[in-house]
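Loading example: each entry is read as two labelled lines plus one structure line.
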Amino acid sequence: MFTPIKIAEGIYSVGCRDWDIRDFHGYSTDEGTTYNAFLVQGEKNILIDTVKSGFGEEMLDNISRILDPKKIDAVISNHTEMDHSGTIPLVMHKIGEDKPLYCSKMGAKNLKSHYKKDYNYQVVGSGETVTLGNRTFSFLETRMLHWPDSMFTYMPDEKILFSSDAFGQHYAGDKFFDDEIGEEIMPHARKYYANILLHFSPLVQALLADVAGMNLDIRMICPDHGIIWRKDPAKIITAYDRWSRQAPAKKALVIFDSMWESTAKMARAITSGIESEDVHVRLMNTRKWHRSDIMTEVLDAGALAVGSPTLNNGIFPVIADVMTYIKGLRPQNKIAAAFGSYGWSGEAVKILNKEFEEMKWDMVSDGVKVLYVPDASDLARCFDLGAVLAKTLKEKLAQ
Amino acid sequence: MDKWECPCGYVYDPEEGDLDNGIEPGTAWEDLPESWVCPLCGAEQEYFEKVD
């Protein structure tokens, strides 16, 4: 439990820290996360978002330090995913189920689907403004950033943007604001973008253009996870602009799994080939790296070599896991090559090539296959593959 | 011809079709190939709702 954090006059962060969570639906959260909820106190008391089921009592305790939770007059739900809506039933039960619940059109639909309740949904759309007591809230639908129901709530007088999952980070610690934590938060924000928002990058670009067009004066951004951006909200907006452009960096990844060290040897030779062309490279063994950390590196990598042995006529299960995950997040502007060792049938390289094709990645060749164990000439072919991959990337970056 | 809306907010307008994915303007919802999915979020056609 933490003492509610005052973020502005009469506005408090009343959410919870989840210190223990390490697997957030398949995303590794090495430093836990927070479920942020915000209490706006005034002539009317408003709660913006809630917390994950199981943390409800803690949130109500936090609120109790400011006011009796029964005095909450309305709830705003920016996002219906269960880590933010999970305690809406508890809150509504506490404050009275007839109290207004503001959400987007898809928000009302999703809340009904989740909690099977006909609450007093007050559907709001982009550009709508609602005045509750002495406080004004305006809304901006942000469909598919990252769910159909997602929306932003903006308080024009206070100039605070409640951005639901956008601009969030999975980080639970003793710091609550960007100025307290400094640069240390950026890798968490980057990982969050790569794993949660990357596939909707074109929508992020459109949203940033919309927000710029509205000339919103944003003094503070309060996401639903992690720290609050109060010193320099433009910093995270600029980072989102950069990430959503998906501009490739002079950086390559060699992602692989191996059965009897043969594909691993190939991976190392490819890595040397890439480095011989002065391109930064990371060698990522999928048994050692979590898929979500690989994904974070994929975000700005310009080139990828993916290696898998052939197992039972297919690709290795862990490679399949990582490739399915990467594919779903639709990274763009990549140059790719496949490689792998095989015994009697070598389908893995072909399967990987097909995956690249479906993701519209540019392949530098058909890849390199090696029967059982690579010899010196096989490793030389791998080295060359790495060098070609790196050269192709450099040529692309020079254009 | 009816327009159909995806849960993600994309609206299929038969008058415009979806040229990026090979759907000519004038293609009715009913005539879309089964393989056609939402160009924005990838949802399959069964999740779309008719726009009133």
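The radius of gyration of chain B is 10 Å.
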